[in-house]
Amino acid sequence: MITVNPDGKIMVRRCLVTLRPFRLFVLGIGFFSLCFLMTSLGGQFSARRPGDSPFTVRTEVMGGPESRGVLRKMSDLLELMVKRMDTLARLENSSELHRAAGDRHFPVDRLPAGAGLMERIQAIAQNVSDIAAKVDQILRHSLLLHGKVSEGRRDQCEAPSDPKFPDCSGKVEWMRARWTSDPCYAFFGVDGTECSFLVYLSEVEWFCPPLPWRNRTATQRARKPLPKVQAVFRSNLSHLLELMGSGKESLIFMKKRTKRLTAQWALAAQRLAQKLGGARRDQKQVLVHIGFLTEESGDVFSPRVLKGGPLGEMVQWADILAALYVLGHGLRVTVSLKELQSNLGVPPGRGNCPLTMPLPFDLIYTDYHGLQQMKQHMGLSFKKYRCRIRVIDTFGTEPAYNHEEYATLHGYRTNWGYWNLNPKQFMTMFPHTPDNSFMGFVSEELNETEKQLIKGGKASNMAVVYGKEASIWKLQGKEKFLSILNKYMEIHGTVYYESQRPPEVPAFVKNHGLLPQPEFQQLLRKAKLFIGFGFPYEGPAPLEAIANGCVFLQSRFSPPHSSLNHEFFRGKPTSREVFSQHPYAESFIGKPHVWTVDYNNSEELEAAIKTIVRTQVDPYLPYEYTCEGMLERVHAYIQHQDFCAAPGPAPPGARAPESPFILAPNATHLKWARNASLAPGAWPPAHSLRAWLAAAGRACTDACLDHGLICEPSFFPFLNSQDAFRTLQVPCDGTESEMNHLYPAFAQLGQECFLQKEPLLFSCAGSSSKYRRLCPCRDFRKGQVALCQDCL
User: From the centroid of its chain, how far is CA 712?
Assistant: First the structure.
């Protein structure tokens, strides 16, 4: 260690390390170099074909350029070590000389040892340099020999003309011009020769037929599937907390939430296990990649966790992780691009090549940011494995926006759509888009004792405003609204601030500042009313308030907010119209727990507040937002949703043998005939189908709700036939098949029936005054709209 004394002289402290560890170090370097050389050359020679020269390097085997490069790096590293050791040695000798001058004698036995050590390191560096040069010569010579040997096989390294592989010759041309554009091609053995192009295009990608002279033993050897393991419910979540990682405020928030709900998850697992009655559940290997938390996507959420920023996404992701783990599945969690690449097996390069190994995960849960990252780095493997992906999508993605060609041609293309996935692969926070799957989240469930305590401790004149950021309080006209509310209630806020009170918050509002979740829950348990200012849309807080015995008061939007008239929804892949701040609370819960009024109508607002003050409500939480409800739903999806092996729908207009439909006694809709054979593998079960012809201008989503049912897009293929229209007694003068997200439908003008040509465009959403849509509906379990009566 070097120190400077007060006089400015440099003093060198003696290192406590003796020469013996250095000898071991030198010996280790020598052994490592020898092992590396044997591995590098052995990798070259072990991959040869029978009859090849020992120095013939096959084009698909990697190691040549990499080996030379690594050896050069080793040589450079050792030379750098020599220079630094030489500097240390001079300092050491200088120190010894100074000490000797003071002691009048010099321990000369140490200098030769140090010099010997330096000589040995220099010798190793020279040897590694010589080895690199020799390997370079050997590989150059082998490539020359390989070129001569290849002349006899030139006819075998021409792009074959095979109608089964029409893109082969075009891909070879592309490789000739662009194979150096991405290092991943060299990683897989491409070296600029025709043979290497064909080997890559037939064995790594699948654009060319297998080469007949190739040894197919290794490539044809099927990967043995891992033995199936039964999933077992878990109640201890400590390992999950480790899997979630640390270092980000968002992750800390998620872990605290999971830890707080551990007891409820354990109880829910116990209940679901009893309900399933010991049915076998295969354990799935699941990757959860939270793309919006990666640095590459900007991670705008983590810095705002402690400043009142939105927490809804983190609430949902924490609950998804907990549900998957409690259900007993194998789980891997990534929040960085580097972790994602490592877990997927992404080759080095720019993302144009397939993965280096079969995907080790049965399911991948991610978001739009993660989906984009996977597409950029998985190459052709993205298309191969995208059926395993589930996209957590707060506001939903409608089929018209999801189909790339259709969206581009008809003006539905946005920054977030056009992925050509099965729309059910998108999973929403609330069940507002039946074309997608409803994932949801959970709210804390109270036991009966806690409910009684809350009812007894409520303050009848206390209101809490929904809005932690000061910007939410800038609502136009809020002063008039708050002044009316202030006549009847004491108003509380939880707006974040650092030093000074936010000027947007009126003086008569008692602001508690940003509260930790447990303290916020306690505030809700005392309050009578929870007030929404119109934003944020569809968050978890209103459900938490209702679960703690509050009444939720929100604004009615007129006209409804959508991507056509509101900046927040612009660019989102949905045409959904939002009639209030929280449509789920309005439609699925309603009065007395939820009041939706026109805030611009002072009389209506004041009358609602007076009624709320007089009304006593019990804490209420919909079953689908309990831990058990979410476990039940996620379990059903994992067991039954298979977008990889599911059979394709029947072609448009195909008539099923022996029509499975019968007309209901009142002749209003179709039902699945009792004696009809059930569609194998159909989920939900086909017998839950009810089909209605909607009124003109009515979407299937609304048409099914009108009859107390849920639109089920999985049933569209059954209805996409002339037989369905005929059984429903629709007078079709003609029938055509086209790509249109409103089909199948009946056009009254012209008496023409239209069938769907593109299965990805089957859509519950969408309407037109031109058409009466043929809508597939189903029943649902009480408190669980995502599942039909027999879906579990």
Answer: 24
Quick check: 95 pLDDT over 80? Answer: no
Residue 408 lies in a domain: no
d(CA 457, CA 133): 84
Mean pLDDT, rounded, of the chain: 83
- pLDDT band at residue 27 under the 50/70/90 scheme: very low
Identify whether residues 719 and 681 lie together within a single domain.
yes
Q: Is the overall model pTM greater than 0.85, yes or no? A: no
Name the pLDDT band for 107 (thresholds 50, 70, 90).
very low
CA–CA distance, 47 with 219 (Å, rounded to integer): 13
Q: What confidence tier does 213 reach under pLDDT thresholds 50, 70, 90?
A: confident
Last residue of a domain, one of 393, 409, 440: 393
The band of 223, judged by pLDDT with boundaries at 50, 70 and 90, is low
Give per-residue pLDDT as tens, 44-83: 333 333 333 322 333 333 344 444 454 455 555 555 554 5
Cβ pair 329, 405 in contact under 8 A: no
Mean pLDDT of 548-564: 95
Same domain, yes or no: 466 and 351: no
Q: Are residues 359 and 257 in the same domain?
A: yes
Identity (one letter) of the amino acid at 506?
Answer: P
Residues in the chain, total: 792
pLDDT at 96: 41
**DSSP string for residues in 710-763:** EE-GGGHHHHSSHHHHHHTT---SEEEEE--TT-SEEETTTTEEEEES-GGG--
In terms of domains, do 452 and 589 share one? yes
Residues 358, 456 within the same domain: no
Please indicate, yes or no, whether residues 311 and 249 belong to a single structural domain of this protein: yes
If one counts the domains in the chain, the total is 4
Distance set, CA 630 to CA 34, 508, 586, 742 (Å):
57, 40, 21, 31
Closest CA to 129 of 64, 66, 79: 79
Q: Is residue 632 part of a domain?
A: no
Domain end (from 564, 594, 620): 620
Q: In terms of domains, do 464 and 558 share one?
A: yes
Does residue 739 fall inside a structural domain?
A: yes
Distance, CA of 377 to chain centre: 14
The answer to whether 770 and 752 have CB atoms below 8 angstroms apart is no
For 94-108, 236-250, 555-569, which range has the lowest pLDDT when averaged over its residues? 94-108
Residue 349 in tokens: 């390069």
Amino acid identity, residue 276?
Answer: L
Cα distance between residue 355 and residue 348, in whole Å: 10
User: What span, in angstroms and rounded, lies between the C-alpha atoms of 540 and 582?
Assistant: 10
Residue 14 has pLDDT above 70, yes or no: no
β-pairing, 745-747 vs 752-756, is antiparallel
CA 641 – CA 643 distance, rounded (Å)? 6
Domain contains 150: no
- How are the residues of the chain apportioned to helix, strand and coil, as percentages rounded to the nearest 5? 45, 15, 45
Q: Which residue range(s) make up the domain with 207?
A: 156-216
Amino acid 276: pLDDT: 94
Residue 126's pLDDT band (cuts 50, 70, 90):
low
If phi > 0 it is left, if psi is from -120 to 50 it is alpha, else beta; for residue 642 that is: beta
Rounded to 10°, the helix 627-640/262-276 angle is 50
Model confidence pLDDT, tens digit, residues 319-350: 999 999 999 999 999 999 999 999 999 999 99
In order of 15, 427, 549, 578, 767, the CA distances from 542 in angstroms are: 65, 20, 11, 16, 30
Q: For residue 91, is pLDDT > 60?
A: no
CA distances from 672 to 320, 667, 676, 679, 697 (A): 35, 14, 7, 11, 26
Pair (284, 369) in one structural domain: yes
